[in-house]
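Subject: Sanity check before I submit

Could someone independently write out the C-alpha cells for this chain? I want to compare against mine line by line before I put it in a report. The sequence has 992 residues.
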Amino acid sequence: MHALPSFLRRPWVLALIAVLGVGYTVGGFWLVPRLVTSNVHEIIASRYHREVRLGAVTFNPFTWELIVNDLAIPDADGGALVSFKQLTVRVGLMSVLRAAPEFRMIALDEPRLRLVRRRDGRVNLLDLVPPADPKADPNAPPPRLWIDELAIRGGETTLVDLDRAQALTLVFRPITFTLRNFSTRSEGNAYALAAQSPLGEGLEWHGTFGLAPVASEGSFALSHVHAGTLAAIGAEQVPFDISSGEIALRGTYKLAERGEVFGVDAQLAELTVSALGIRAHGDSADAVQIPRLAITEASFDLGAQTLTVGHILVDQPKITAVRTRDGKLSLLRLLPAPVATTAGDPAASKPTAPAAAPPAKPWLVSVPDIKVSKADVSIEDQTPAGSANFHVAPLDITLSGYTAAGSKPLTVDLAAVINDTGHVGLKGTVVPSPLSAQLTIAADSLPLPALQPYADDLTSMIIKSGTASAAGTLTLDAKGVLAFEGAAGVENLATIDRELQQDFVKWRAVEVAGLKLRTSPFSVRIREVAMHAPYARLIIGVNGMTNIKEVLAPRAAAADAAAVAAARAAKATPSPAASETSVTLPPRPPRAALPVDIGVVRIDGGSMNFADLSIKPNFDTGIQELAGTIKGLSGRADSRADIDLAGNVERYSPVKITGKANYLSPVNHLDLAAKFSNLELTDLSPYSGRFAGYAIERGKMTVDLNYKVEDRQLDGKHRIVINQLQLGEKVDSPEATSLPVKLAIALLKDRDGVIDLDLPVSGSLDDPKFSVAGLAWKFVINLIEKAVTAPFALLGHLFGGGEEVSYVDFAAGSSAVDAPTLAKLQTLVKALASRPALNIDVPAVVQPDADRAALAASQWHDSLVARARKRLGAHADDAGAVDRLLTTPKDYRAVLEDAYRDAVGHQADIPRPATTPDAPSADAQASSWLEGELKGRISVGQGDLDALGEARANNVQAALLTGTGIDPGRVFVVTAAPLPVAPAVRMQLALH
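---
Independent answer below. Compare away.
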C-alpha cells in the first residue's frame, strides 16, 4: 500500500480535506435539495405565476443522483397541468470533462400531463413555453447533451378539447418510454415507447433518432385501438358515429433533415380494422358494419409526395341503406354536408382574389388492388306507397390500378346476387378523369316481382313472376354519351289484374337480340325481337272501360268512367243546354318520330282473350296460335314494316293479317289487310241482343279489313260477308234499335243466304272525334235505316231501276197493266228471286171519285157501242162502222132515243129546238138533252169499286207470279184504304 504524499499528511491539510468533505457532504445532502426547491418555486411563481406543489427533494453528492418527489404544476383553471410521482436524475462525471450535460439516467415515475385546448383554441401547455431569445442564433447547433438512459414509467396523458360543441376528454395510461444513448450531436440514439389506454389500447414505438441533423428511424405498432376513440377526437368533423371497432397497425418509418427539406418515409406493413360499426348521428342502428378491413404493403414518402397502398381488403361488409319518402338516401348522412353560404355574408358576396402562390405539387397516390369481399347490402326504398326492398348478397368487387390522378384506366370486376336469385356481373375499365368507361355486363334471373311497389303506384297490376336478363357492352365516353350493345330479355312474365284477379299479360319469353342503344343522339336499334307464347287479356268492364286503361292508368280510367256515366245520364235525360252546346277538342299535336329501328319481331304461340262485360250475357272469345313476323319497324318517315301474322279465333276461325305499316314515324303510313274467316255469329249474340234486339241462332261471318293511312288520313274499307244468319228470340234491351231488323236482313240476304257488305271509313287521325269503330257502326245503322225506310230504292240500286219499283200507276177506272209497268215489275221479280226471305203486299186500291167517274163514263160508252152494233146488224163488224154511226148526228140521236125508250118505257118528249142563228142543229140539241137524261140514270156502286181494286191487285200479282217461279205464298193481295184525289191511281207495294 502506497503511503500518502508527505504534504497530505500535514495536519492542516487533513483538516482542510475534512472540512471540505464535510462541507461537500452537507452541501450535497442538505443544501442542493433546498436550492432546487427554492428555485423551482421561484421560477414557477415568477415566470408562470403558478403555485407549484413539490414534495421531498434529495441529492446524493457521492452518486450524483437527484430525486424529486410529488411535483405538481396547476393549470390556469386550477386543474392539474403537469405532475409526477418521482423524478430521478443521475449525472455522469464526464459532464465536467466534456463541459456539457451528461446524464447516466433520467427516470420519471407516474408522470401526469393534462393537455387542454381551450375555447379560444390555445393549448394550455404553451403557457410553459418560454419566450424566444431574440439574441439566439437560429442556425446554431443544439447544445451538447448526452443521456445514457431516459425512462418514463407508469405515465398518464389526459387530452381535453373544449373548443367544440361537446367537450372531449381522452386518457392514455400507462405510458412507458425508454430512450438509450441519446446525444444531440450524433445519430443512433435508441428509444422505446410503450403506452396503454384504460380501454386496453396499446402503443409500442422503437427506434433511434438524432438532432444534428434531425433524423429518426424505427418501428411502431398500435393494438386494440377502439375506433370510437378516433371518432370522438374528430366527432365534429366526421358526420357519423362509430359504435364499435378495433384498429391495429404496424410499420416502420424514417425521418431525415435533408437541407431545407424534411423527409418522411413510412412503410405500413398492415392496418386492420375489426368489427367496425358506423351509423349516422342520432341513429340507433349501424348503417355500415365491417367485420374486417385490412390495408397492407403501404408506403409513404413526404418528400416525393407519394402514397402507395399495396392492398385494401374490405371483408364481408354489411350495408343498410334507406331511401326515405322525400327521396333522400340515408347513406348520404355519413358524408360531410356541403358548406352553405348565406346571402348576408359579405365574404360570400365578395369574391376573394386568389393568392399569387405557385400551384402545389400534386400527390401521387396509387392503390393497385382494392377488394370488397362478400358484401351484404340491404336497400329499402320508401318512395313508393309500399316500400321496395332489395338485397344484394354476396357482392364482390375488385378494383385494380387506382391512382389519384384518375387519368389511367381502373380495372373493375363486380359480381353480385340480387334478391337471392338474380346474378349481375360487370367487368371492364373505368377512367375516373375525365369519366369514361368500357364495361362488359352480364345479368340474368333478375326478379321482376321486386318492382311491385313501383307498379302499385302507377298501375293496378300484380307482377306474379318474371325475370329479366341482359348481356353486352356498356361504354361511356368522356363527353357523357352512354351506349349499350348486346341482348336483353324477360322470361316467364306473369301479371294479373288486381281487380279481376285474372291473367293480364304474360309470356314465356321475350328475347331482344342485337340491341344497340345510344343516349346522344338518342337512338335504339334492335336486330330481332322474339316473343314466345305471349298472352294478353282485353276486357271491357261493366262501366265501359277497358282493363288495359284501368290496369295501366287507373286514375285516368276512373275519370273516364265517370265521364262515360255522366254522358249516359245526359243521354237519358238531355237538357236544352246540352242539346244546343257542343264542345270541340283541339286536334292532338303531331307525334314526334321515335329514333328506333327494329329489324324483325317474331311471334310464336301467341294468344289473346277478349271479354265484354258491359253487355248481358257477357261476350267472351279468344285468338289462339298467333304467329308471324313484323319486319322493318322504324321511326324513319320513309320506312315500311312488313306485317305477316296468322292465328285462329276459337280454334276453327282463321285470322290473317298482312300489309305494311309505319307506327313509329310521326307521319303514319299504313296499308294493312286483315281477314277473319268462318267466325261463329252465335259468339256475337250478346252484341246483336244489345244493339239489334234479337239473339243469333246461327250464322258464319268472314271479315276483310283494309286500312290505308297517308299523312294521318285514313281510308278504310271493310267487307263483311255474313252467311246463313238467322235471328233468334227477341231480347229486351234499352239500347236496341227500333228499326225492323228482320226486314233489313231479308233485304240484305241474297238467295244463297249471304249478306255481302262494303263499309267504307275515312277521316283524319288528328280529329279527336274520329273513331274507326264508331264510323263503321254508324255506317251499319245508316244502311239498316235506308234498307227499312227505302227498301225499294235499295232493291232498285241492286237490280236496276230506282224507287219507282215500289209502285204501280193505273188510269182512273182501269185495272190494266201497261207494258212499261210490266217491265218495271220484272225488276221487282228479280229482286224477289234474289231475296227469298222477302214477302210483298199488293194492295187493292181505288180512288173513289176518279174511279166512279171513269167507271160511269165507261158504262155510257159501252152501252152506246152495244146499241150501235145492234142497229148496224150484219155490218157491225165493218171497219169504222160503229164510230161512223155514233158520229153521225142523226144516227147518234136515233141511238139515244132508243136508249131513252128502253130506260123510261115511252117515247122521249124532246123539247122544241132553239132557232137562233148561232144555235146547234136540232139533232145536236136533241142529243144533248137525251145524254143528260140518260147519264143521270147511270149508277157505280161500292161493289164496282171493290171489283176494280181486286182486278188491279190480281193483275199485278199475276205479273209477279206468272212464269217467274216466285212462290205464290210470298205475294199477298191486301185491302187498302181509299186513295185521295191524285193525277193517277197509285198502288204502293210493301215488303216484309
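---
OP: Matches mine. For the report I'm noting this point. The CA atoms of residues 442 and 471 lie 4 Å apart.
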